[in-house]
Amino acid sequence: MQEQLPRSGGFAKRRLLLVILLNNRGNIMVKLLSAGALIFLFSAQVLAVEYEDHSGMLMDHGDGHLMDMGGGMVMGQNTSTLPGGCDSISETKEITVHAGHKYAEKFPGRMFAFDTQEFNFKPCTKLTVHFINDDNIRHQWMMHGLPKYLYPKGMFHLEVSGPAKISGTLILPPGDKTYLVHCDIAQHMEKGMKAQLKVGKGDGDLPSIPGVTAYVIPDNYKGNLQAVMAEVSAAAEATPVPAAVVNKTAPATTAPTEDSIISGVTVIGLAIGLGLAPFLAKKFKGMSASEVVATVFDWVRAGIGLVIKLLSDLVKRVLSNKNKILPGN
């Protein structure tokens, strides 16, 4: 019995040591899992993209030009002035447009793109654009062709260095027209960052809008640069030249007539035109061509109405004089 006691005691010690090791291993696993969970939570916060919102930091520099110290820019901001031909705001809309490299992945050969390539709104819509730049570079959302009397240089322009967000508002003109929207940073539009915005029914589609219209010069990955340039040159040479250019002749001259160029009617017309020029310039200032034509037609209609009224009054007076009984009859 005495010889077996040390053995039983040694076995008990080994068993106790094994239990302690298993408990420590469990504690180590719990600690490792806890550390992993903490690392995951902190990394998720670090990897999350934080967009700096520039809308609340913009300073008004006049004429719809807003800027901030962080590089955010809005040009052509217009929240209340109606374009000519709009009696009221037809509807109020808000859109969010993303810009970045990842939105070009679905367009082979493109490098940058908006997440939307086509927009459509009613004429005279008050539109607010929330522009989000997902890249770590500078992008723009620029709209061309707007009336210059209301939008400087005919543009509405949002610009910001990403990742960031900026917002601006404009009121769309009347009529059916298709406007170009693009990023004007060098090579960004050429690499795919452009879209079209149709007001009303639009007046057609713009070329080379990714996913919307065919490219004017399609990408060719089959040959080398020399072969591609040779094909382009051959196509240019094969394009027929319009007959009007080939058969271009000097304008025909007519024999001078004996009548004087300056007649009495011409002098009177020039005098009236010079007299009315300051008034017309002030009246038509800021109007588009369609608004000027509409105003002139209104004046002609009013003038015709005035002439008819005067003739009617004259006829009534003549008839009333005939019906009067002269004294002594």
Topology:
Elements: H1 4-47, E1 52-53, E2 59-60, E3 66-67, E4 73-75, E5 92-100, E6 113-114, E7 118-121, E8 126-133, E9 138-143, E10 156-161, E11 164-171, E12 177-182, E13 194-199, H2 225-238, H3 243-246, H4 264-283, H5 289-323
Parallel strand pairs: 1-11, 5-8, 7-13
Antiparallel strand pairs: 2-3, 3-4, 4-10, 5-6, 8-11, 9-10, 9-12, 12-13
Keywords:
329 residues, alpha+beta, Immunoglobulin-like, five-stranded mixed sheet, 5 helices, 19% strand
Description:
The chain has 329 residues and is an alpha+beta fold. The chain has helices at residues 4-47, 225-238, 243-246, 264-283, 289-323; strands at residues 52-53, 59-60, 66-67, 73-75, 92-100, 113-114, 118-121, 126-133, 138-143, 156-161, 164-171, 177-182, 194-199. An eight-stranded mixed β-sheet has the order 2-3-4-10-9-12-13-7, with no helix packed on it. It has a five-stranded mixed β-sheet with strand order 1-11-8-5-6, with no helix packed on it. The chain is elongated. Residues 1-7 have low confidence and may be disordered.
